Amino acid sequence: MLPKTRIFSALLLGIGVALIVWGLVAPRFVHADGRLPLDLDATTYTLIDDNGQTRLNSDPEAGLVETPITRQLHFQVMDPADAEEATLRVGDIHLHGTEGVDGNEQERLLSASVYSFRVDRFSGEILSEVAVTDQLASPTLNYPVDGIWLKFPTDAEETSYQVLDPTLRQPRPADFIGSDEVDGRTIMHYRQVIDTANVAESFADPSNTTTLTREDGGTTTGYLYHDVTRDFWVDQRTGLVVDISERIDDFYGDRNGEKYDQVFLFEGSLSQEQAEDLRAQAESIPDGEVSRVANSIGIGVGVVLVLIGLLGSFGVFGLFSRKRS
After folding, report:
1. Widest CA span of the chain, in angstroms?
2. Using one digit for the tens of pLDDT, what is the confidence trace for 194-245?
3. Euclidean distance between the first and the last CA atom of the chain, given in angstroms as a whole number
4. CB atoms within 10 A of CB 181
5. Within 10 A of 24 (CB to CB), how many other CB atoms are there?
6. Which of 100, 116, 289, 323 has the highest CB neighbour count under 10 A?
7. pLDDT level of residue 320 (50, 70, 90 thresholds)
């Protein structure tokens, strides 16, 4: 029968090996490292401008009207998804007027688009073509994007990122502006500036061109221009966008970019309450620090137990015991 010291040593050896294996393997199965969670609550960004300007689908003859405008971005993490990638579905709608005053949501609708694409859960990089349906009854269009949208890289850096602009269907740089500490979290500030971009040069669509009347009574081809200043505030550790503000100036102009007809003017931002909720959501995502420390401790303890177990298995402790007697 084996001495009790060797039985106990074998037990320590087994526990030590188990701790080492768990510390090495756990990071592959327990994803507590700030990547985009698959069970993330549906995330909504509601930007409101009380004094926007737009044209109404319900009354084209009214021309440009001043009205409250709401832009709502809503994204969900969808299947198929795995440890490295996920599918995002983004709804983007614009509404005019005030809820309960200017009709129901359908009557207030200015535009509605649904986007679907694959993303890298760490970098936020768009990995597939973006599939977009501009209206509920329109066919789906697909276009490639080399950039990100609504998910910045985990551990976001002080640099520029190419961020999708849905109107242009192309990415444009969002430059790092600065950072702040908010409730113990580092919030990174990026600004995207698009200076009078001709939308017709990005993609062909009947709404991207028109006929303009010059002051002398003649006509000229008009182009839809898109002028934007957009700010993103990003939780540095997770890369989640926790606040947005934007100023959009869309108009028809001549080939030189001279403005003729205003199409859409919007300057909106999130409420303080919604920004706080988004920061709280980002804070609830495990950043991996606790897991890394626990795994390191587990490996360290496992190594110690393995050494003790090996010494005991070879009878070292029994040898000491005999020497003492």
Report:
1. 117
2. 999 999 999 999 889 999 988 888 899 999 999 999 999 999 999 999 999 9
3. 21
4. 9
5. 13
6. 116
7. very low
Taking the C-alpha atoms of 148, 149, 155 and 157 in order, what is their torsion angle to the nearest 10 degrees? 70
Cα–Cα distance list, 181 to 186, 217, 235 (Å): 5, 57, 10
CA 315 remoteness from chain centre: 58
pLDDT tens per residue across span 70-121 = 999 999 999 999 999 999 999 999 999 888 777 788 888 999 999 999 999 9
Query: What are the C-alpha distances in Å from 79 to residues 35, 57, 154, 298?
Result: 16, 34, 21, 34
The 10 Å Cβ neighbour count of residue 69 is 25
Q: Which residues pair with 89 in a beta bridge?
A: 76, 116
Q: Sign of torsion, CA 113 190 120 37? A: negative
Residue 10 CA: distances (Å) to CA of 17, 19, 63, 236 = 11, 14, 85, 46
Return the structure tokens found at 136.
């509920």
Cα(70)–Cα(48) distance, rounded to whole angstroms? 5
To 5 degrees, how large is the angle CA 133–CA 135–CA 136? Answer: 90
Q: What is the number of H-type helices and E-type strands within the chain?
A: 5, 13
Check: CB of residue 236 under 8 Å from CB of residue 167: no
Pair of tokens at residue 73: 């971005």
Q: In this structure, what token pair is assigned to residue 257?
A: 């970019």
Helix axes 4-29, 289-313, angle to 10 degrees: 150
CA distance 72 to 161: 23
